[in-house]
Design brief:
427 residues, EC 5.4.3.8, alpha/beta, Aspartate Aminotransferase, domain 2, binds pyridoxal-5'-phosphate, Aspartate Aminotransferase, domain 1, PyrdxlP-dep_Trfase, four-stranded mixed β-sheet, pyridoxal phosphate, 15% strand, porphyrin biosynthesis, PyrdxlP-dep_Trfase_major, globular, 2 domains, 15 helices, single chain
């Protein structure tokens, strides 16, 4: 038995499903999850010492590639100064200043430790600031596992065919209106009906939890206008796409200014840092200034902030995003070429350092279209790629991530593996 198999058996004795986050369990693709030993650059190694090119990147944070020497050095230095103080530090000021500089819609920001905390807190803040209860979210968008957001929430939940988690009282979600992504008409009618009761609209401006689906500009502009007209708060959940699709996030790319933004993943450089922030007048409702409570023992943790600050510095290198986008585009162009070459319904799309692969004729633009893609073929493709040493997300409903270490030879190896894999599974 391989180490991966042995570990998986052992893990299931003491950990539910053997994993600490559900998608890691390979349930939707079958087989044994790889237990990872180490990671460097574009590569990871599993417990059996097999090397893979990694397109998960810790589900987004590893934008510089794994174990960037400057990030490691910053963490090593921070560790020597103490692990956690539960008191403010200068590094937290620097981190907040950096975020506010890079994302101009954020005038004030609060650091937390996970994307879930960021969106959950932003939601509470929006409700507290507007004194309204209703919120709008979109089917297939995942905003972490806060109760009122666990409605038709994409990826892990889609994978399990579980539109809503059990354990969430209906009372907690009765104020959550779920609309179709990229559907402007539905937004208009929801606001027509409930406008004065809607605290906020929360959206992934580039959706990455129902595979990659880009929002149309009209969709984002419509929600911006409707929120302004009705005094509702627009929350961009950029936990995944922030600092991933462009330096200033999706809001910079689309030129749309949200009232609040949730960030995570990249801003922690692989350690637990997330944040939410926006207009100072809204942020003033937060404790200790205002009545909306929010707190965290490890918020702004000095070791995590050291990793985050160094990452934010490194992604500002000239042409960083041009190169990241080029490499991602090369990968996607390669996938699309193979689809045509082999005459199969297989295509791909990219934005910045994020990509999607789809077993259908054309790149989907809605949740409904994503659900029509061929999930069975994806499973076989996933395993064939794994055999070829390419580590994709173990779900047809997750976006993929390219890092600054995915150089040309890495992309080429991946494209060749994809050609072989597709030949294997379709012949
Ligand atoms: N929001 C989005 C868009 C995400 O993709 C995720 C996680 O994948 C979250 C929120 C939750 O973040 P975390 O897993 O750090 O709680």
């Amino acid at each position: 038995m391989s180490f991966n198999e042995t570990f998986f058996q052992r893990a299931q004795i003491t950990t539910p499903g053997g994993v600490n986050s559900p998608v890691r369990a390979f349930r939707s693709v079958g087989g044994t999850p790889r237990f990872i030993k180490k990671a460097e650059g574009a590569y990871i190694w599993d417990a059996d010492d097999k090397q893979y090119i990694d397109y998960i990147g810790s589900w987004g944070p590893a934008i510089l590639g794994h174990a960037h020497p400057e990030v490691i050095a910053a963490v090593q230095h921070a560790v020597t100064q103490g692990l956690s103080f539960g008191a403010p530090t200068e590094a937290e000021i620097l981190m907040a200043e950096e975020i506010c500089k890079l994302v101009p819609s954020i005038e004030q920001v609060r650091l937390v430790s996970s994307g879930t905390e960021a969106t959950m807190s932003a939601l509470r803040l929006a409700r507290g600031a507007t004194k309204r209860d209703k919120i709008i979210k979109f089917e297939g968008c995942y905003h972490g596992h806060a109760d009122s957001l666990l409605v038709k929430a994409g990826s892990g939940l889609l994978t399990f065919g579980n539109p809503t988690s059990s354990g969430v009282p209906a009372d907690f979600t009765k104020h959550t209106l779920v609309l179709d992504y990229n559907d402007c008409a539905q937004l208009e009618s929801a606001f027509q009906q409930f406008g004065s009761e809607i605290a906020c609209v929360i959206v992934e401006p580039v959706a990455g939890n129902m595979n990659l689906i880009k929002a149309t500009e009209a969709f984002l502009q419509t929600m911006r206008r409707l929120c302004s007209e009705h005094g509702s708060i627009l929350i961009f959940d950029e936990v995944m796409c922030g600092f991933r699709v462009a330096l200033g996030g999706a809001q910079a790319l689309f030129g749309i200014t949200p009232d609040l933004t949730a960030l995570g993943k990249v801003i922690g450089g692989g350690l637990p840092v997330a944040a939410f922030g926006g207009k100072a007048e809204i942020m003033a409702h937060l404790a200790p200034l205002g009545g909306v409570y929010q707190a965290g023992t490890l918020s702004g943790n000095p070791v995590a902030v050291a990793a985050g600050l160094t990452t934010l510095k490194l992604i500002q290198a000239p042409d960083f995003y041009t190169q990241l986008s080029q490499q991602t585009q090369k990968l996607v162009d390669g996938f699309n070429r193979i689809g045509t070459e082999l005459n199969i319904d297989f295509c791909a799309d990219a934005i910045g350092g994020m990509f999607g692969i789809y077993f259908c004729k054309e790149v989907p633009t809605s949740f409904e279209q994503v659900m029509q893609a061929n999930g069975e073929l994806f499973k076989r493709f996933f395993h064939a790629m794994l055999d070829h040493g390419i580590y994709l997300a173990p779900s047809a409903y997750e976006a993929g991530f390219v890092s600054a270490c995915h150089f040309d030879h890495v992309i080429e190896t991946t494209i060749n593996a994809a050609r072989e894999s597709l030949r294997q599974i379709t012949c």
